[in-house]
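Session log. Operator J.P. requested a structure for one protein chain; no other inputs attached. Running the standard single-chain path with token output.
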Amino acid sequence: MKAIIVTEKALAGKEIAVLAGKNPVVVSESVFRSIVEAENPPGIAAEIEIPMRIASEGADVVFLEGVQDPSNVGAILRNAAAFRIGEVVLDQACADPWSPRALRAGMGGHFSLSIRQVPRLDFAEFDGTLLCTVVQGGTRLGETNLDGKLGWIFGGEGRGVSAAVEKQANVKITIPISPGMESLNVAGASAICLYEGFSRQRNSRR
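Structure written below.
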């Protein structure tokens, strides 16, 4: 942790109890609000270095293509951390995973993952089964073999996974939904898929 920044008001409150042995930088309310983006900040913030984690060998991977909403990126990272994904790889068209909105949506999930942003997705070195979601025509999720190392590919909010990336997937999955609904939000779809993979693999170890 590089620095802890607090307001004078926070310094006098209970929040400061977590700073035992630290020397926080004290700033005015107006300066603090210029640093953080939250509408109602608690008056305490931290400057940290972006961690460089290495995923364990054999861990599942999430690949994101063109997910432009930072809240969706953060929610997917939170899902990935919850369901034991080792690494998340984003292409350059995705929102910055370390932006304030993505960090808030991630709720700490960032720090359990290896996160890489690359110019474009490249699956040449991935040694598992690549799966992507499609609105229709894919194998039903509940009928899909989810054994072994998995690479989940999720596409942007509007178009989904591009045709070029879809061609590289070993398995195309469709999540059944109620008639009249066109599709699921990408973060919601990721939660369903990652939970299914996590649950099945956990049960297979028993």
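Operator note: The chain has a mean pLDDT of 87.
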